[in-house]
Write a structure and sequence with these properties.
alpha+beta, Phosphorylase Kinase, domain 1, 2 domains, four-stranded mixed sheet, 9 helices, 18% strand, Aminoglycoside phosphotransferase domain-containing protein
């Protein structure tokens, strides 16, 4: 949906729910700025500071229900989510929700996070895993029935389609994905993904657990988990790699010298290993290797080929990802 159409829809919903809009907080796009998938407004609802989120996503989502279910089951005093005041799921892809505004004076983590922040973030992750439902809280979508290796292949094929469509709209001399460079790494990476994830299970996840989604209250005594739009079944290990991807692979760290950039990934893996051990994750190194390959292939296709990014940033991130991918494919540490 276009930005004006989604904003107009939001204004109509606000009027119908007697939600007084004060300002727009955020809008999210689906890989291209013209494809707006959600808009978030701050305002007043029944005399309380609140947030109205309107979404129309190409992907299936039941965000209001996922948020409601988490709040109903969460027993943590450390990790909370905003209370849900009103909502409507209009289709499997669209709807709206009104929820409590986050407490004033706090802040979200800002990527790339420091080593101390990473340790705090990972402790919050452990609290989340102890309190998030272990089993699906709705009927599964068809793709969620797939084995882990087939699920990854299915998602990567969708990103390949996005990249293909984006490249077809560009003149031949403006295309971004060098297939001579990409294809052999893709083929080898897919073999590793299929082999490793054929031995792994699927698990019910928040789906977007990353620094940007964790809000710390002013005194640091409590945290809020936000954005339940991606709650789904995912392969084991997905969340560990997703954290690294969100905080490091797609942040401004590509401006660092490569060795320093790679040390950031190594530090993430080192700090995540004891967390995985406490959750009885087997063969952590092999799992992280395959999970990071999945993240890198997806980034090259969807985030760098299909998406709109400044050329310097796109090239800088691509070069580092290819260099690191070669290291991971060869199972080296240098």
């Amino acid at each position: 949906m276009t930005k004006p159409a989604l904003e107009s829809l939001g204004e109509r919903i606000a009027a119908s729910q007697k939600f007084t809009i004060e300002k727009k907080l955020y809008q999210g796009a689906y890989y291209a700025s013209g494809m707006v998938r959600n808009v978030i407004f701050a305002g007043i609802f029944r005399g309380i500071r609140a947030v109205l989120k309107i979404y129309n996503d190409p992907r299936t989502t039941d965000e209001p229900l996922a948020l409601r279910t988490f709040n109903q089951n969460n027993k943590s005093e450390l990790l909370k989510a905003p209370p849900l005041y009103a909502y409507e799921v209009t289709t499997p892809f669209s709807g709206w929700l009104i929820m409590e505004h986050l407490p004033l004076g706090g802040k979200f983590f800002h990527s790339p996070i420091t080593a101390a922040e990473r340790r705090t973030f990972l402790s919050v992750y452990e609290e989340y895993r102890r309190n998030f439902p272990m089993k699906p809280t709705r009927s599964l979508h068809l793709a969620e029935y797939l084995p882990a290796h087939e699920y990854h292949a299915y998602r990567i094929s969708r990103w390949l389609q996005l990249a293909n469509d984006a490249e077809e709209r560009r003149p031949p001399n403006k295309r971004r994905l060098d297939m001579k460079r990409f294809l052999p790494r893709y083929e080898q990476g897919m073999r590793i993904i299929r082999n490793e994830f054929s031995k792994r299970s699927m698990m019910w996840c928040h789906g977007h657990f990353k620094p940007k989604e964790i809000y710390t209250v002013r005194d640091g005594s409590k945290f809020y988990l936000t954005d339940f739009a991606h709650a789904k079944m995912y392969p084991e290990g997905y969340e560990f790699a997703f954290m690294i991807w969100a905080d490091h692979l797609l942040s401004g760290t590509w401006k660092q010298p490569y060795k320093q950039w790679k040390k950031g990934i190594d530090a993430w893996i080192k700090d995540t290993r004891p967390v995985a051990r406490r959750f009885n994750v087997r063969r952590f190194d092999a799992l992280m290797r395959a999970s990071l390959i999945e993240r890198i292939i997806g980034t090259l296709l969807a985030d760098l080929c299909a998406s709109e990014r400044p050329e310097e940033e796109r090239v800088g991130i691509s070069n580092y990802l290819y260099r690191y991918l070669d290291t991971v494919l060869l199972n080296r540490h240098g």
